[in-house]
């Protein structure tokens, strides 16, 4: 699977901009049509799109310090880049994070997200 353009003979391992929700109306559409999975300090909102791939949106509420807010967003983007093939394709997914969110590593975020997703699967 190609994660992005080839740069100098090597494949770039970045998340392409087309994999991100960029416009306010894209977020509003997910909020309006989407289903929610609520965790302690994170909510995952997802809605089907007309694409072959899923796209990511991140909303961080109440985190005052930019350093912490940006780290949370960076970790969530990296999680999505690494694990998007394990998430259902064809969805716009928004991670809405609240102030109390305390995950500081990629492994913590992976555990939180997959635990939330598995709790939904086990209730069906």
How would you explain this protein's 3D organization?
The protein is an alpha+beta fold and 124 residues long. Helix content is 36%, strand content 23%. It has three helices and six strands, in the order ββαβββαβα. The longest helix is centred in the middle third of the chain and has 18 residues. It is globular and about 35 Å long. The chain starts with 5 loop residues before the first strand and ends with a helix. The N terminus is likely disordered.
Summarize the structure.
Helix content is 36%, strand content 23%. The chain is of the alpha+beta class and 124 residues long. The longest helix is centred in the middle third of the chain and has 18 residues, at 66-83.
Keywords:
124 residues, alpha+beta, Ribosomal Protein S5, domain 2, two-stranded antiparallel ribbon, disordered N terminus
Reported for the largest beta sheet, the result is: 4 strands, mixed
CATH architecture: 2-Layer Sandwich
* CATH C-level name: Alpha Beta
CATH topology: Ribosomal Protein S5, domain 2
Q: Which class best fits the helix and strand makeup?
A: alpha+beta
Q: What is the CA-based Rg, rounded?
A: 15 Å
Count of discrete domains: 1
pLDDT average, as an integer?
88
Number of strands: 6
Strand order, sheet with most strands: 3-4-6-5
- Tell me, what's the shape? globular
- Written as H for each helix and E for each strand, in order along the chain, the element string is EEHEEEHEH
């Amino acid at each position: 699977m190609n994660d992005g353009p080839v740069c100098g003979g090597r494949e770039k391992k970045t998340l392409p901009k087309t994999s991100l929700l960029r416009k306010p109306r894209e977020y509003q559409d997910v909020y309006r049509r989407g289903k929610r999975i609520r965790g302690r300090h994170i909510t995952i909102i997802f809605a089907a799109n007309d694409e072959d791939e899923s796209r990511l949106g991140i909303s961080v509420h109440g985190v005052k310090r930019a350093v912490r807010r940006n780290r949370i967003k960076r970790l969530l983007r990296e999680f999505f880049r690494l694990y998007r093939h394990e998430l259902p394709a064809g969805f716009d997914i928004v991670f809405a994070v609240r102030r109390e969110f305390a995950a500081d590593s990629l492994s913590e975020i992976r555990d939180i997200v997959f635990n939330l997703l598995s709790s939904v699967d086990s209730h069906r």
